[in-house]
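ok so for the tutorial part 2 we go from a plain amino acid sequence to predicted structure tokens. step 1 is just haveing the sequence, like this:
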Amino acid sequence: MPFLTYNYTSRDLTRLRNQVLTTSFVPTASGEAPSAPSIVMRRPSYDGSFDIVRITNRAKNFKNIAKIDFSTKCSNCGKIKKNSEMAEFSDTKYQFLCIECVDKHYHGSYRKCFTCGLYHNVNNRCDCTLKDAMAQSGQVLRYNAKISPNYFRHSESDVALFGIELEIEFNDRSSRAMTDIKMKKWCYYKHDGSLSNGIEIVTHPLGWNWIQNNKSEFEPIFNLATNGMSSKRTRTCGMHVHLAKELFTTFHLYKFMKFFYDNVDYIVYISERSYDDLQRWSYFDDITSSSLKTLSIEKRSNERHAAINLANPETVEIRIFKGTLSRISFFKNIEFVKAVYDFTKNNNLINDTYAGYDVQFENYVNDRNKDFPNLNKFINIKKR
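step 2 — the prediction. this is what the tokens look like for a chain of 384 residues:
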């Protein structure tokens, strides 16, 4: 089993110092002794076990040795139990009890936190939060971290690439369900200062056809609502959809933006936000056709919180949507961006306006139900 290197900071070393098990030589997975004395520590793993990690005296890198099921003496019954049979209490530091003793003597009084793996009093919240635990393990990146994109295409012709940002908040019932998403290669987590206690799920560029052929990949997102997370039922969360600027000619970008700014009431309805909420997070200030033409030519802006954000160097960001963990709404949002992209590319303006084009647009979507099933379903539900 090859070593995996973890680049921890000195702050992490201080935090983990209390988890030292031994400073002796410990064999590697191949049975060989490490080249230098090692400090061996136990680091919580999200599958409920513990990774055994070491740091050598010569290199400040943690290296994974193996998931070894060490034995520990139960402080209550005195029996030697495997670590997988042990329970650790968050409010009784360094006291280890076997699960058998917990069930026998503490049943109904303590429960296991699925974030940190420790048992805590049922009348109190665990001291940790899922966000904190994920941050400590390096799973959550800084808000301004730059990630080299990986492109997910169904084929070489799959050029309409979408970047998706979905904000979620944790509530009192933190869950290990986030690890189901973390395992996906097409996304990662980032901090977001606009959230109270949450993170942002960010995707790599995803091809339109790739999304259509891999919808099952997104199922873990839709399961989060039943595992202690929220998105739509918050005042903070949104869903942002990015398209590459290179997909737009100057005139197409102008028409694309005109559709949004000429149909504000319709955009409010599609966004699933209130008008005031929309103005707070992706405002629709009065903007002239002349201003839109300038923005289309320059393809940039300093207004990051506009409904159509051009401040990103490579992408056009549509910021209107309310956060969601609903399958229909999630795909509806992506389909709406693609539908407006196609509609404005193929339909010219009349008298320099798209005002009142919502009916024509909905007919366009209805005729292409195979491509936009969730958007069409959303529109028909709202009409009832």
